[in-house]
Amino acid sequence: MLTYPHIDPVAISLGPLQIHWYGLMYLAAFGTAYALASFRARRPNSGWTEEQVSDLVFYGAMGVIIGGRFGYVLFYNFNQFLKDPIWLFRVWEGGMSFHGGLLGVMAAIAWFSWRHRKHYFDVADFVAPLVPIGLMFGRFGNFIGGELWGRVADPSIVPWAMIFPRADDLPRHPSQLYQAGMEGLLLFILVWSFSSRSRPRMAVSALFLLGYGVFRSFAEFFREPDAQIGLEMFGWMTRGQELSFPMIVAGLALLVWAYRRAPKAQA
């Protein structure tokens, strides 16, 4: 069994000002997205300018933050919101949802596409490869904060199991790192490599939806279900799996549609 590295969640403390690692992970995510987008934009005939990249990353960041918070309240803790509506705005108490952030980014892409007169899926296909590395940083933030821990594990079978101080005294899967590896690094390699060559419109977005849905659903088997929700459908599905299933269906449908319509577009 491994020892959980007790990392102070406060990275920098300057008097009353405290900068948390989780916030730094968000900055790293947005900074990396900007760097990758700028790299892609500098390619010949990319159709993108530096100004457009800056606007896109800004809109996307707003979508992540606003959508992520609203999504957490709606999908994971709506009863708390009904009891205390002001809790929605107390973001420093924690609570963000990937699926809510995804909806926020989709709305941001729609706004950006309208303002810059670009096709929605041209923008979405440009954005999709930028997202997974940001998700990786986010899961690192969860791990450093000792939150969203995994299910109880047998150290004789899972020698890397850890005891998370904020959970209990039982060894658990470091599921945050599993998610960082699958939804983050592995998905980035997959989608970035796929998008490095010309693909039919919608195909890159479809692969991201499909890949994330599959990886997240698998990782949920090792992640402790949310205490206020538990296991739901069929007695074994988590809320994360329920929200990821539509992504898998949508990703498959878009991928098939993209390749079926590709010959007509080229003709």
Account of the protein in words:
It contains 9 helices and 4 strands, in the order ββααααααββααα. By secondary structure, the chain is mainly alpha-helical. It has a domain at 20-146 and 162-199.
Strand order of the biggest β-sheet: 1-2
Query: Which geometry do the CA atoms define?
Result: globular
H/E element order? EEHHHHHHEEHHH
Work out the radius of gyration: 19 Å
Largest sheet: 2 strands, antiparallel
Q: Give the termini distance in whole angstroms.
A: 59 Å
Helix and strand composition category:
mainly alpha
How would you state the average pLDDT, rounded?
92
Q: Identify low-pLDDT runs.
A: none
How many DSSP E strands?
A: 4
**Strand residue percentage:** under 5%
Query: Helix amount, in percent?
Result: 55-70%
**Distinct helical segment count:** 9
Q: Keywords, please?
A:
globular, two-stranded antiparallel ribbon, 4 strands, transferase, EC 2.5.1.145, 9 helices, mainly alpha
Write the layout of secondary structure elements.
Blueprint: E1 10-14, E2 17-20, H1 21-41, H2 50-76, H3 78-83, H4 98-116, H5 120-127, H6 131-144, E3 162-163, E4 171-172, H7 175-195, H8 203-219, H9 239-266
Antiparallel strand pairs: 1-2, 3-4
Helix pairs in contact: 1-2, 1-6, 2-4, 6-7, 7-8, 8-9
Question: How would you concisely characterize the structure shown here?
Answer:
The protein is mostly helical.
